[in-house]
Structures are given as C-alpha cells and as structure tokens.
Amino acid sequence: MSEIMAALQLAQHQADLINLYQADSEVVYTGYIDSLAPDGVVVNTYDDAGLQDGAVFMRYDVVDEVETMSEDLDNMAFRIANADQAGLSTVPQTSVQLDAKQSGLPQILAQARTTQQIILLVLADNENYLEGQVQGFTDDQVTFQIFDKFNYRNHDTETLDIAAISIIEFQGNELLLESAYVQTDYRHQDDIKATGKRAINDTLVHAQAHHQLVAVDSADGSGMFFVGFVNTLNADSLVINLVDMTGQFGGYTLCRRSLIESVSIQSDYLQTVRGFIELNQQYELNVQPVLNDERLFDGTTDLFESQIRQAGNFHNLLHLTTKNALLPTMTGYPGPINNGHFIFYNVEDDHQLNRVGTLVELDQVVELSFGYMDAYLLEKRLKDAGSL
Fold it and tell me: What burial letters (b/e) apply to 143-159, b meaning 16+ CB within 10 Å?
C-alpha cells in the first residue's frame, strides 16, 4: 500500500497522466489525479476519443498498479491533444468539487443525492456494477435506486453497506445522459425481435424506409450486437450507420446477412439510445466533426469488394472479421484484391503495422467496420508517424 500511495502522490505532484489498474478487474481508468482523500483517490478520467469523461473514486486497496509511462499512455496523450486540436466536444461537465481533507466517498454520495445524478457503483464482493440514484445515506449504509438501461423493470431500491463500495464513477458522458433521461416519462417495453430470413428481411426493409433504430445480433457466438440505422441493403449484406453507447454516430458496419441471428426493433435499451440521440441533438453532439455520417453506398455492387478496394487505395483502416475460426478479428488496411484474395496488413498491439500481412479470402469476410472514431485516431497517429 505504501508503494501505491507513494506512486499516487508523485503522479499528483508531477501532474502525470496515469493508468490505474485493479487486481481483480480488467477495467483500467486513465486520467489525471484530482485529489487524494483519506479514503481513496479521485481521478478525472478520459474516454477513448481523448475527451474528458467524468471522474472515478477508487479506494486505495483496490488500486493494484499506478502506471505513468507506457505506449498506451503515449497513445492517450496523443488522443487528448487531438481532441482539443480537432474540436471534439462532449456533454457539458462540471468540475469535481471535493475537500481532499475529508473522506471522498461520502462527499460524492452527498452530491449525487442533491443533484439526483446517475452514478455507477462497483461493490467489493460483486463482479457486476450498479447504476442508479442515491436516495439517502448514513455513515454505514446507502439507499440506492437502480436504473437498468437494458431492462426498466429492474428498478429496485437496495440498501448497501458503504464499506462494500470499492469504486464510484460519476459525471461521465453516459451517466449525465442517463441523468437527463430518467427525468423523462420512460416505461418498460417488451422486446420485439425478428428471427428467420424472411422476417429479418422484412424488418430491415421497413427499418430502412422509416429510419427506424434497430439492434442486430450476430450469429457467430460472439455475443456482439450492433445498434444503428440501416443505410444500404442488398441480397447478400447490409450497411448500418452505428450509434454508440452515448447516442452518437459510431461509424459504419458492413455485415453479411448470414451473420445476422436476429433484429430487434423494440426494447428498453433501444428506448434508452433513442433518448440519448434526442438529448445529443439538443447539445449538437450527434456526430463528432472528424467523422462523416453522410456516406452513401451502391447496393447494386459487391459491397465487400468495393469497400476493401477503396480502403486499399486510400490506406484507410478497417476492422475485419472472417468466418475462418483460425483468423482473429483484425484492424488494418487491405492490399489489392487478386483472384478473390488480398493481403491484410493489421496493426499490432504496439501500434506498429504488420508489414508481412495475412492472406485473406474475400468470400470469407463477414464483417467490416470503418469510419469510426478509434479507426480515425489510429489512422491519424500512424500517418503522423509516417507508418501509413
């Protein structure tokens, strides 16, 4: 603990960008230390786009490692600087106002109760997390009303031991949107989901014609689902304008119909995302200025071949999935297509390009994602470094 404390104090003194790692979770928090309270550290955190994304309180005994130098932090510093230069914007956030000499957790709970903001709690004995609103608290316990964006029927009020709370996330983008959304008249809706080729086709055609938000579940066992609007349809595949977890444009996904297990047109989560989209319209935040949400595609062509050729010509990054179980999902750019094959030059974990590449069969490709924020940032960094 003394080593962790010393590392935190040094990072605060030097105003270092840090990663906070936990022993029993893969969740990593990146940001700058706001305060070192008697009971834990408060860090102003940043999202993957380099935008400030609220703050987190962590008890000291949860912190397993304080990282101040790494390739990942260099990458995040680049993203934070780029977000400022490129004029990226986020939901208006207030700065953290805590007295560092007093315990941080009760102050955060008190602020959340006063403002009725949604916060996220991680409990010491629970791998899951709870989102909701503080109804009241004592020195020992907190009364917490659950908000479950996936299932509105899960709205129980629970009494939790304060000693069991390890982490609190607060004032982040999604939490602020949820805080505004729960003030609206939202009600549970049963899921409406299409399965089977004919029903899926009819649902997609209707969704495209009426600009209807859908959730597409993949059939590859990955548990992956895409939320967005149908852009282009043909007999073999479809392009979706993705919507991310904060209701903003999240790029495009091109997937084969064979990858689709079901299409949902009604659910509590779709209601939540629609609410976020409407709130973002008020903030003029539906699409970040570096992304293009107005692309058109020719459904009379082989969409996979045309998109791969275009990405290869301009060295644009794609996220690629094949039905070959031996090939992992990869992000990179394709070489020319020859005899139904192409070389895919993927970006390694250290942000270096694999110059040898992987031979991929065009007909094996089942999903391409492109035009999203992470691809833009990775592409920009590689080009700035002269690697792309």
Answer: ebbebbbeebeeeeeee
